[in-house]
Specification:
- It contains ten helices and six strands, in the order E-H-E-H-E-H-H-E-H-H-E-H-H-E-H-H.
- The chain is of the alpha/beta class and 209 residues long.
- It has one domain (8-205): HUPs (Rossmann fold).
- Helix 2 (58-69) runs antiparallel to helix 10 (196-205) and helix 4 (90-101) packs parallel to helix 6.
- The longest helix has 13 residues, at 21-33.
- Bound molecules: NADP nicotinamide-adenine-dinucleotide phosphate.
């Protein structure tokens, strides 16, 4: 990943266990709505808040993300969190992206609203909000008050003028990774919920059984 002329960089941060059509629709919608130059999918390597839950290994989650995004010219996948040892803190990722794309690049960190609800527990929440703009993807009917209440005081003051957390409603986010894993475990179909290549990869490797 060399220095490029891109200036509005979308970053899809997530565990992607597995990636599904809800994530892909979210990234495409953000790309269009926020006039992004590209969307970089960054599967988290070692989620800091999930030590108690076993995720599929980072390499397999990365490979599924590559398979899912291969046919879209403005989607790319990055290994930065997978290759960085230790917990995957967003502040470290955003700083690394600024080193790669330049200080002036604008970073739009796209992730689920439920993940952003926990932002106060993240490493250096105020700094991370200074260094990038967040796009919180919600399903229709999501209770936005919970999200507003979870934001740091400085962000609440900023919201009338220059908000750092924007909200995007995505109907396709009715699809969830939890539901897909449950379906596989129960022997139900996941066809049309994930890209066909991802479904075949899950089946071939016997994931989530
Ligand atoms: P999560 O708790 O597994 O996901 C929370 C919700 O958001 C789920 O409903 C999830 O749906 C959805 N979601 C996750 N990523 C999404 C995306 N890119 N687009 C749309 N919906 C998404 O959250 P996570 O995946 O572990 O973490 C999300 C991001 O926040 C990651 O990049 C992670 O590194 C970052 N994070 C950072 C810190 C920190 O710096 N300390 C702490 C926590 C999280 P699905 O299950 O269907 O994906």
């Amino acid at each position: 990943m060399g220095r490029t002329p891109h200036r509005r960089i979308g970053v899809m941060g997530g565990t992607f266990d597995p990636i599904h059509h809800g994530h892909l629709v979210t990234a495409e919608e953000a790309w269009k709505q926020f006039r992004l130059d590209l969307v970089l999918f960054i599967p988290s390597g070692h989620p800091p808040h999930k030590e108690d839950r076993r995720n599929l290994d980072p390499e397999s989650r990365y490979l599924m993300t590559v398979i899912a995004t291969a046919d879209n010219p403005h989607f790319q996948v990055s290994r930065i969190e997978i290759d960085r040892p230790g917990p995957s803190y967003t502040i470290d990722t955003v700083r690394e992206l600024h080193r790669i794309y330049g200080k002036e690049a604008q970073i739009f960190f796209i992730t689920g609203a439920d993940a952003i609800l926990e932002i106060l527990t993240w490493k250096e929440p105020e700094k991370v909000l200074q260094e990038c703009t967040f796009i919180a993807a919600t399903r229709p009917g999501y209770d936005l008050r919970r999200l507003e209440e979870s934001l740091p005081e400085a962000e609440r003051l900023r919201r009338a003028t220059e908000p750092r957390v924007l909200i995007m409603e995505i109907p396709a986010l009715a699809i969830s990774s939890t539901d897909i894993r449950r379906r596989v475990r129960e022997g139900r179909s996941i066809r049309y919920l994930v890209p066909e290549g991802v479904r075949e990869f899950i089946e071939k490797n016997g994931f989530y059984r």
